[in-house]
Design a protein that fits this description.
The protein is built from 9 helices and 22 strands. By secondary structure, the protein is an alpha/beta fold. Helix 1 (85-103) packs parallel to helix 9 (387-397). The longest helix is centred in the first third of the chain and has 19 residues, at 85-103. The protein is globular, with a radius of gyration of 23 Å. The protein binds S-adenosylmethionine. S-adenosylmethionine binds at residues 257-259, 287-289, 292-293, 308-310, 313, 336-338, 357-359, 385.
Length: 427
């Protein structure tokens, strides 16, 4: 590496990396803030594009701060801890406005107030990898690599989950005959859970060992711990559930998709409800998971059609609807929304307000089918966790829809991930 790779940061990209222009090349530099002068190391290089990371900050931004985590920089889970939190929100808002102007014809007068909460101890779920080579390592992957960074704590995780890490490490060390591929930690409203996913799915773990693990975790964290093995309940101490709104209870399994910041999820659901209220007589919740939006939408007392691809989750969503006395209002269905078939598209014609909450891949096929077919719902509330796939889908939607409201919801503080809420109306 040349010691003279020095750059002045003049801009930022949608992953919140600093941008510099050097000798006709664009250099994307992680850990670099606008107006800083940094020394950088090249990570990858293509024709006129260089990816790099700042290794020395020669002139600091006034918004740069000390890292809040001892593993920051090595662990790949966070990207923005070096930036003061209020500036993270400001930066994400700017990134979002740019994306909208570029792809969705949006303007700032349509802006929803940014939703944010606590920047630490917010994550209510995490998946830790285990590495048995040499000494045991437990943690997240390093940046752009599959090497594991061995951690004892994580300030982003909810406190109970962070405190559990050391106890789990001891459990793994004391039971080295049990080989674990990965560990999922999750936090419900009233209890926590751990899922041990075994390398060999046919192996078993003695119940007394699991009981003792549950007890040790409870002693340290003052909350009940349920233990799952291969996503099957082994020890149930207290019901595991989350609540998208105050009066609802949705049971879940560690492997189910559940929003990973429950404090902000409640605010996001509240925003979605206020955008959806009185806009239709029937709602479709597409990519519905366990009913995080469909159950709250059912409070309008209008028909809700919920679609999810994973069968077990559809079953659990049906159980949740029943338990919350909403099964007469919600129809839960299993369809692949990446390949919407005629039957599904025919049914969707009955719903004039669609809530789309796709995974990172977005919802290209459904959006395309909307433009190609005769039927279009009056409103689409598109909740996106990936600005790139949203940009692609919004560009298509623009043919027939206008973006009327949009804003960010900072579900993933200290990372570059961006969750957004976007309401489209038929032109
Ligand atoms: C971002 S999550 C949102 C879930 C739910 N709306 C929530 O807030 O908890 C996306 C959901 O889409 C589901 N999914 C992924 N691919 C799908 C597909 N091809 N068709 C239907 N659902 C899919 C996932 O299982 C997951 O539950």
């Amino acid at each position: 590496m040349s010691k003279n790779n020095i750059a002045k940061i003049t801009d930022f990209d949608y992953l919140a990396r600093g941008i510099a222009h050097i000798d006709g090349k664009t250099v994307f530099i992680s850990n670099a803030l606008i107006n800083e002068i940094v020394r950088y190391e090249i990570v990858a290089q293509k024709k006129n594009i260089i990816e790099a990371k700042a290794v020395e900050i020669i002139e600091k931004s006034p918004f740069r701060r000390e890292n809040v985590c001892p593993y920051y920089g090595k662990c790949g889970a966070c990207h923005l801890q070096h930036l003061e939190y209020s500036e993270q929100i400001a930066l994400k808002e700017k990134i979002w406005q740019r994306q909208l102007e570029k792809y969705a014809g949006g303007s700032s007068k349509n802006k929803l107030t940014a939703i944010f909460g606590t920047e630490q101890n917010y994550r209510s779920r995490a998946r830790l990898a285990v590495d048995y080579r040499k000494e045991i390592k437990l943690g997240f992957c390093e940046n752009a690599s599959n090497k594991i960074v061995d951690i004892d704590e994580c300030p982003i995780l909810q406190k109970n989950l962070s405190l559990a890490i050391k106890i789990i490490r001891k459990f793994i060390q004391n039971n080295s005959e049990i080989k674990i591929a990965e560990i999922t930690l999750c936090q419900g409203e009233k209890s926590s859970a751990i899922d041990l996913s075994l390398l060999n799915k046919n192996n078993t773990i003695e119940l007394k060992k699991l009981l003792s693990l549950s007890e040790k975790l409870a002693e340290t964290t003052n909350i009940a711990w349920n233990i799952f093995v291969n996503n099957q309940i082994a020890i149930e101490k207290e019901e595991l559930y989350f609540s998208p709104t105050k009066n609802l209870k949705i049971n879940f399994y560690p492997d189910d998709f559940v929003q990973s910041n429950q404090e902000l999820n409640k605010k996001m659901v509240e925003e979605a409800l206020s955008l959806a209220e009185n806009k239709s007589n029937s709602y479709a919740d597409l990519f519905s998971g366990l009913g995080n939006f469909s159950l709250p939408l059912a409070s309008f007392n209008k028909q809700v059609f919920a679609v999810e691809a994973i069968k077990d989750m559809v079953t659990r969503a049906q159980i949740a609807a029943k338990k919350n006395n909403l099964h007469g209002i919600i129809k839960n269905n299993c369809f692949d929304l990446f390949k919407p078939n005629k039957k599904l598209l025919a049914e969707l014609k009955n719903y004039d307000f669609w809530l789309l909450d796709p995974p990172r891949a977005g919802s290209l096929e459904l959006v395309r089918s909307l433009i190609d077919n005769k039927y279009q719902p009056q409103f689409i509330l598109y909740i996106s966790c990936n600005p790139a796939s949203f940009a692609r889908d919004a560009k298509i939607l623009r043919e027939k829809y206008q973006l009327i409201q949009s804003g960010i919801c900072d579900m993933f503080a200290n990372t570059h991930h961006l969750e957004t809420i976007n309401l489209f109306e038929l032109k």
